[in-house]
Amino acid sequence: MNKKNVISVENLNKIYSKKSNKPVHAINNLNLDVQEGEIFGLLGPNGAGKTTFINILAGTVIKTSGKVNVWGFDLDKNPRQVRASIGIVPQEVNLDPFFSPKKQLELQAGLYGVKKKDRITDTILKLVSLEDQANSYARSLSGGMKRRLLIAKSLVHQPPIIILDEPTAGVDVNLRKNLWENLKLLHQQGVTIILTTHYLEEAEKMCNRIGILSKGNLVAFDSTKNLINKFQKKKVTFKVDKLIKIKDGELDSIKLLYCKENEISMTYEKNRINIEEIVKLIQKNNTKILDISTEDGDLEDVFLELTKK
Hints:
By secondary structure, the chain is an alpha/beta fold. The protein is 30% helix and 30% strand. It folds into 2 domains: 5-229, Rossmann fold, CATH 3.40.50; 233-308, 2-Layer Sandwich (Alpha-Beta Plaits). The strands form 3 sheets. Strands 6-7-8-3-9-10 form a 6-stranded mixed beta sheet, sandwiched between helices. The chain has a 4-stranded antiparallel beta sheet with strand order 2-1-4-5. A 4-stranded antiparallel beta sheet has the order 12-13-11-14.
């Protein structure tokens, strides 16, 4: 069954014109779609254009050209409906220190024009495990609670899509785990989640599909599994009975990491070369292999490979 696209972006450009310097292409001809019910990861180094993209969806940055459709609404024709379909969790903690979580959610719902009878404040507080702190001052909340309150604020108008901009930047490991558990709960309720993150391990565990931005260009867009398979470098280390000399590039795609005493370590691309060929290369000098250990590539390899290009 084909999933419907809840966000479609065609040829999106954002150019910042600077009088003194040449124009800056923050987003360059971006084409992507996000499917209903998925967790989609938007990755890229600082300045890649991730936040600009989110701000265009949020209506705080005006695109230069291109088409954006969110939940069936065209951004040019129905900007209000686009904003109503999205909840955005910002990077910065922007909470009023003297208002309780309950009061903040009520105010936020008011800003979105949600009528009193339609508000689900208590349900949201429960969802982000803040029901016990509902009436405490926000300033007395821990860092983790503040992050969860930001997620709660993005839910007051019950949007079908939630966007989190670097939700776990500068957050400790326990808190990160806690946030992911909260996001998984939301996901189970059918919410589509888009997140930008620096933590590749996080994206690898959480995201169904990933787009990688570099200098405003989409350099990869695929399922997490395909991306890892496509660029997979494997590392292999041999323990041998005598030292032999192997040169970089002696076999296609081999890169020597080190060759010392009785150990040789190298990386190779598994879609270009077979481990048996490497074994033969080592054995051709009557060398005995005493032990072999291999390590698989991960999303970090893909990311470095693509953003380097």
